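Lab notebook, bench 4. Still working through the backlog of constructs that have no structural model yet. Next entry is a single chain of 318 residues. Request: give me the C-alpha cells for it.
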Amino acid sequence: MNPVVLFLLAAAIFAFIIVAMSVRIIRPFEKGLVERLGKYQRLLDPGLNMIVPFFDVVIKVDMREVVLDVPPQLVITKDNVGVDVDAIIYAQVTDPVRSRYEIANYILAATKLAQTNLRNVIGELDLDACLTSRDQINGQLRDVLDAATDKWGVKVNRVELQRIDPPHDITEAMSRQMKAEREKRATILEAEAVRQAEIEKAEGSKRARVLEAEGAAEAVRKTADAEKYRQIAVAEGEGQAINTVFSAIHAGKPNNEIITIKYLEMLPKLAEGKANKIFLPYEATGIISSLAAMVEGIKKDEPEGEKSSPMISPMDRQ
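Model written out:
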C-alpha cells in the first residue's frame, strides 16, 4: 500500500480520536467541572461542550434533589423517656463547585449531622411534645441542617420524621389513657344530650301550656265579645221597641183608656203572694171614668139584641 495513503489514513484516525476526546456532552440535570492539569478551570452547562484533550478532565455533578435516609436511633426526651426516631432529608446541590471541593461526601456528612441535631432537638422536648409537634421538630432540623450545609453548596429543602416509637409500656399506658379520655368524652356527650333533650322537652311543654292558655284566653275573649254583642243587640232591640211604642203612642194620641188597660194588666202581678193587699190606685177617679167611657163605647159598637155583661169597677172589687 502506498505510504502516503497510510499516512493520511493514520492522520484521519488520529484526528477522529482527538475530536472524540475533545467533545463532552452534559445532560440537562448535570453540571460539568473542568480541571486542567489538576486545577479548576471552568463550569460546563448542559449540552455539547469542547475541552482540550489530554489536559482537561470533566467531572459531572448531579444537580437533582436527593433523598437521604437517617438511620433509626435511640433518643432520650426531656422527661427521660427513650424513643426510637428516624427521619428523611431532602437535599439538593446548589453550587457544584463548592459541593465538589468543600467537602468530600456531602451525603454522608448531611446524614451524620442530621443524627446529631435530631438528638439535640428531641432532647429539649418531653414525650407528649415530641408526639404532637412533628412540624415544629421538622422545621428546627431543616433550619439547623440548612445553615450547616450552606457552605458546602447544598440546600436542605425538607426534613420529615418517619416515626417516633416510645417504649412498649409507655405505649400501653398511653393507649389506656386515650381510652379513658374517649370514654369520658362519650359520657359527657351523652349527659349533654340528655340535658339538651330535657331542656327541649321542658321548652316544648312550656310552649304548649302557653299556647293553651292563649287559646283559652282567646276563647274567653271571643265569648265575652259575643255576649257583649248579644246584650248590645238585645238592648238596641228593646230600645227600638220602646221608641216604636213611644212613636206609636204619640202618633195615635192615646187617652187614659190605654193607661187603664195597662193598669188592669198589672193588677194580677201585683196581687201575687199570700199576704193580704189593699190597692189604692193613683188618680182612681180618672181611671174609673176611663173605664166607664170604654164600656159605653163597647155598648155602642155591639149589635142590637146582645146584652153586655156589667163591668165591675175596681172599687167594687176591693
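Notes after review: The longest strand covers residues 65-76. The CA atoms of residues 18 and 107 lie 36 Å apart. Flag for follow-up if needed.
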